[in-house]
Amino acid sequence: MAFISAGDLNERVQARELTFDEPENAWSWQTVWGAWAKAEQSDRTSYFSAVGIGARSVVFLMRKASRIHLGLSFLWRGRFCFLTSIADTEQPGIVEVKAALCEPVECRKDADLDPAGCSFPGVLTEKYFKNEPERPHTVTTVTYVLVTPKAIELDPGSLVEAGGKAYSVQVCHMLDQWKNEYEILRKEDC
User: What CATH architecture applies to the domain 10-102?
Assistant: First the structure.
């Protein structure tokens, strides 16, 4: 790794933390601090989900700070960055932060029970797409993985609205310290 100078840190990132607004009954990402970083978009896939398909990745080199952790997200060039790893580099005081470039979607918990249910940000990634021929029509089954911040807890069998569509929560993966992953499914007649 080449030595990083202060002039190399020429891209602004905003670190955002998940916060809850009680009157709005909504979780959202709020900027808590900003920093300068050297950013390099990569052709490599970042596997931010253990059960879903990955996303393009970006690597940030920045000054080490005690306030950085995997529960944050970054906003970089107007893009949402889901942090996947933070590691020390050979250069003292500089860390390498890897992130997945994602498109967050607005979600709503318990969509079937409460029209004004708690809203929260999530990231959808594809799991698989299956087409089941039936007579006299076809049913399309779409399964996604919904990746959420750790504070968001969904129950198996519940309905969640993601990106304006209702899905059934099938499987919950909640062992990661910083995020939860939910396999969600919807069936549509064709």
Answer: Beta Barrel (2.40)
Amino acid at 1: M
Chain mean pLDDT for the chain:
86
102 in Cβ contact with 82 (< 8 Å)? yes
CATH number for the region 104-189 comes to 2.40.10.370
Please list, in sequence order, all residues whose beta carbon lies within 8 angstroms of the beta carbon of residue 158, skipping any fewer than 6 positions away: 109, 110, 112, 168, 169
Worst-scoring range by mean pLDDT, 49-63, 79-93, 124-138, 146-160? 124-138
Residue-wise pLDDT tens digits, 71-115: 999 999 999 999 999 999 999 999 999 999 989 999 999 866 676
Could you tell me the pTM of the whole model? Answer: 0.83
112-127 burial: b if 16+ Cβ within 10 Å, else e: eeeeebebbbbbbbeb
Contacts of 88 (CB under 8 A, 6+ apart): 64, 94, 95, 96
Residue bearing tokens 């250069």: 91
Which ranges of 23-173 does DSSP label H, i.e. alpha helix? none
